[in-house]
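Same chain as my last thread, 287 residues:
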Amino acid sequence: MKTAAARLQSADTRLIPSPAHPDGVPPRFHFLPGSDLVLSQYKGKPDVAIAVDCGSLKQLGPSVPLFNAAKTTVQIDHHDFGEPFCKIMVVDTEAAAVGEIIYGFLKVLRIKVTPAIATCLLTSIIVDTGSFRFSNVQSRTLQIASDLLKTGVDMKYLIEEAYWKRSLTTARLEAVSVMNMRFEMNGAVVWTVVKQSDFKKENGLIGDADGVTDALRSIEGVKIAALMRETGKGTYRVSLRSGLGINVARIAQVFGGGGHHNAAGCSIRATKKAREDLIRALCRIAA
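reply #2:
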């Protein structure tokens, strides 16, 4: 990490955030400091391109050509089954969230962690630990959270904004998802589809349905939950969640995606066959 930090600190670069998310920053994260600076397009050739919390190059979506055009590429990630694709790798698969890694990175660079920075880092930890409920929480996680709280950030506010608060559009899309859900393996696997027509009807974006998979996974008896969101480009954006002991990241990898043991994702063609292939694969590991 020290070598990577030194190289980045000495470079005269400009970071251009460019999310793989087709709709930009999801609405529920608009409260974060700097969210308005995120660009969906950038003309030029960057000196340094940094991919954060990205397990594979494919996840950068339309930003791949811009990213690959950079002289130096950096991957900061914590995915268990990520694919290395950068010249400089800052990867810690033991970290509960990428926010932990960046916190350590800033310490190496001797950059003061301001309340604005702490807000973003703590939100990263809150989201990836399920508000400190998941098994990836370690003593280091809690220590870093404690350090960030000392800057004056309001953790209750962050948890409310990033984890619990839902827009009316999100609530309606969740209702659509529940109405469309189907069960397999005597209730061990649940899956649902949100179509483009559903998003248009509710005036919603892809990101407005982010919390649906967790809601499905919380149903009693469910071991694996799958949400398929139609993108309008002939594909489904798939989100997977599972209980302890079931590695959905392996299935996501088979379909060109990745993630963590209990939270992963991929993209598949928006066809009945592709959907059935995915469901069969999920049923096999749920048996």
